[in-house]
Amino acid sequence: MKRIGAIIAAAGQNDDFEPLQTLGTISLAERNIVTLKHAGITQIIVVTGYKADELERHLAKYDVMFFRNPDYACSEMIHSYRIGISYLLNKCDKFLLMPCDIPFFTSRTIRLLTETEGDFIQPAYQGKPGHPIVLSSHIASEILDYNGEGGLAGALKTYEPYTVEVDDNGILLEYADVYKNTEMLQKHSSSLIRPQLNIAFAKEKVFFDSHIALLLSLISDLGSVSQACKTMQISYTRCWNMIHDIEQQTQCELIKRNVGGRSGSSSELTERGRQLLYAYRQFEEVMQKHADTEFQKIIPEWCKNKE
Known about the structure:
Helices cover about 45% and strands about 20% of the residues. With about 300 residues, it is α/β, with parallel strands linked by helices. The model has no long low-confidence stretch (mean pLDDT about 90).
């Protein structure tokens, strides 16, 4: 199975657009995330900059990762993509790159793009190319080394995209295009109907869920509890309270702290911590597939998504 990660560029300052703007009942940034999750994408990075604290607090409930672009005011969007690629490079085979201000693509389009083989995949509606694009890990790694002009377009100019024609004009539409288009908004919102599972392991009380799973994954990848907290927008104290609760319920150590040394303190998962995280991810995947299948059998036709 291909490992797929998504990077949402939401760092820039734009007088005509803000990720926190509401359209329907959710913000534009939320709409990006909800559509990705509907398509089965779980590794999602939001690169923030302008109003970073506010945006990260707003999205923290979605179990996504936050990385900041400190140069958002004077850098191109490719810099935000590089920040996300740097973290995901050895964890993903394919990368979805998307600007936050084009959030009206459907989950069906995401599935079509990620199922298509190729190094550079681009959707098109009636011959017009749009977003998001999909890059292989090979091209993504080359973007990290690109120092030329032209931003992302310049980095990709030597590659011929494989175009996937989709029946989805949302790949072209920005916020301003849909703001007063009630029919388009209703169509996209209808496409988001899905079974949403919140898988948790419980003993005397719930001790392991998707929030904890993301936390342990980040500690394992970053080697730091404090960095994992920043990436999830949770406090250091709350983080350790969560860890202590898990260890009390499982009666085993899940996080090992390495104190001191030339490179400073670090943290890592114990063998049992890695086993528990792997078991949760496997169980979550199996249950989601089962839920998707049963949803299509049980839900009334009028309630199914209208992609």
